[in-house]
UniProtKB/TrEMBL annotation:
Listed name of the protein: Endoglucanase
One GO term (biological process): cellulose catabolic process
Signal sequence region: 1-37
Example GO molecular function: cellulase activity
Species this chain originates from: Actinidia chinensis var. chinensis
One Pfam assignment: Glyco_hydro_9
Magnesium is among the record's keywords: no
EC number: 3.2.1.4
Similarity field: Belongs to the glycosyl hydrolase 9 (cellulase E) family.
Length: 500
């Protein structure tokens, strides 16, 4: 089961006089001795393949993860709608709309910014985007309604069973005008808008459909404001409860709609609502709940290119974000493990590693193209420095760490064998055609044996603050993979596969 990290409030970073020297020393010491080179192209291939292992619904003939089968083929039937498809968010069998939409947005952003570096793998990345986008179109097909979850999480988490065997409640949850959810609706609008850019030249008709739907969903999110965890607290909390508030998702949705449509109304919305929707808060947080750092980096591209001086405050916030996460700066919310991994309090730390590293790389590219650097007190950080830090985090994930373990399943000689994932840990339907009931799966959950099905490409929650990792299913915060860990990693690996 997935878990939320706590809310952080960022303050201005304190920079020591010896910042630059400390920073360089920190960058060089972010590790035990490195593994000799990484095959980023292979890691990219595997990171995308993971999403096929997370598919729900009727699997296509070209499905490559062959130990998976069709599942949840009647999702939505109890509400009279078709909600088949989409992704299971993690090691459970619930379809949570909030993290799924964020996953779609980051997969799209990965393709938009780094697709040209992905070689032949860009086709598979685009297929991963489409699988999510087609589901989000189903979830938003009824005007004024967004279906935000399929599956009762308490019923699901009380069982350990394959998605193909699911007999738990497939309850459908929705938001509407009387039960608002501007956070999940805003993120869904962002995902649809971002995906429309991916398909603009690849499939213009599909792209137009996505953008048109994004406009309608955003209008609904903005007109009927409220947090979905207030409307649906019994279903979404504590799993994907909106701790941060819905304001950032409205700005995030508007930013992606402006990028996708170039309509001035969305730029005016951003300028008008910057203060009201708290754009400058929690500058060093980015994930499925908190979009602030992502908003600032995304909008900064136009500012750096000299096209949006009225949005310069977003670039200032992006600069502050960069300064707050650099090694050598004292900041209470962003720490580094002794082995050099970005570490934030809360569960599934690797979600922070991949999403913040993605922003480092994206911002580095924006700075490079506009010939800018980031001022941090009396020092500065160059685009090359940001790339090196992002690459260092990727290398840690792939095996340059004190455990000498790759945290991507199936990559390298040593990787997690007992991940917290139902389908991976239970025998496949091909190997064991008979039904495995809710509680019958418990013996597989508690078994010390490796998972029988290798979920290639899955990146787990990762080691603790001391760089140690218990390769054990019950330690779900460390051993559970999620789609929103992998989504930004696709972009990172795409870039480094072409620029090692």
């Amino acid at each position: 089961m997935a878990r939320k990290s706590p809310l952080f409030t960022a303050k201005s970073p304190a920079i020591s006089p010896s910042f630059f020297a400390i920073f360089l020393m920190s960058l060089l010491s972010l590790t035990s001795p490195a593994v000799s080179g990484h095959d980023y192209a292979d890691a990219l291939h595997k990171s995308i393949l993971f999403f096929e292992g997370q598919r729900s619904g009727k699997l296509p003939p070209d499905q490559r993860v062959r130990w998976r089968g069709d599942s949840a083929l009647h999702d939505g039937a109890t509400a009279g709608v078709d909600l088949t498809g989409g992704y299971y968010d993690a090691g459970d069998n619930v379809k949570f709309g909030f993290p799924m939409a964020f996953t779609a947005t980051l997969l799209s952003w990965s393709v938009i910014d780094f697709g040209r570096s992905m070689g032949g793998e860009v086709r598979n990345a685009v297929r991963a985007v489409r699988w999510a986008a087609e589901y989000l179109l189903k979830a938003t097909a009824t005007p004024g309604v967004v279906y935000v979850q399929v599956g009762d999480p308490y019923s699901d988490h009380n069982c350990w069973e394959r998605p193909e065997d699911m007999d738990t409640l497939r309850t459908v949850y929705k938001i509407d005008w009387s039960h608002p959810g501007s956070d999940v609706a805003g993120e869904t609008a962002a995902a649809l808008a971002a995906a429309s850019i991916v398909f603009r030249s690849r499939d213009p008709a599909f792209s137009h459909l996505l953008l048109d739907r994004a406009v309608k969903v955003f209008e609904f999110a903005d007109k009927h404001r409220g947090a979905y965890s207030a409307s649906l607290s019994h279903a979404v909390c504590p799993f994907y409860c909106d701790v941060n508030g819905y304001q950032d998702e409205l700005l995030w949705g508007a930013a992606w709609l402006h990028k996708a449509s170039r309509r001035r109304e969305y730029r005016e919305y951003i300028v008008k609502n910057e203060v009201v929707l708290r754009a400058g808060e929690t500058i060093n947080e980015f994930g499925w709940d908190n979009k602030h750092a992502g908003i600032n980096v995304l909008i900064s591209k136009e500012v750096l290119m000299g096209k949006a001086d009225d949005l310069r405050s977003f670039q200032n916030n992006a600069d502050d974000f960069i300064c707050s996460i650099l090694p050598g700066i004292s900041h209470p919310q962003v720490q580094y493990s002794p082995g050099g991994l970005i570490f934030k309090a809360g569960g599934s730390n690797m979600q922070h590693v991949t999403s913040l590293s993605f922003l480092l790389l994206a911002y580095s590219n924006y700075l490079s193209h506009s010939n800018h650097i980031v001022p941090c007190g009396d020092r500065s950080a160059s685009p090359a420095l940001l790339k090196r830090l992002a690459k260092r985090q990727v290398d840690y994930i792939l095996g340059d760490n004190p455990m000498r373990m790759s945290y991507m399943v199936g990559y390298g000689e040593r990787y997690p064998q007992r991940i917290h994932h139902r389908g991976s840990s239970l025998p496949s339907v091909r190997a064991h055609p008979a039904h495995i009931g809710c509680k019958a799966g418990s013996r597989y959950y508690l078994s010390p044996n490796p998972n029988p099905n290798v979920l290639v490409g899955a990146v787990v929650g990762g080691p603790n603050s001391s760089d140690s990792f218990p390769d054990s299913r019950p330690f779900f915060q460390e051993s559970e993979p999620t789609t929103y860990i992998n989504a930004p990693l696709v972009g990172l690996l795409g870039y480094f596969s072409a620029h090692p």
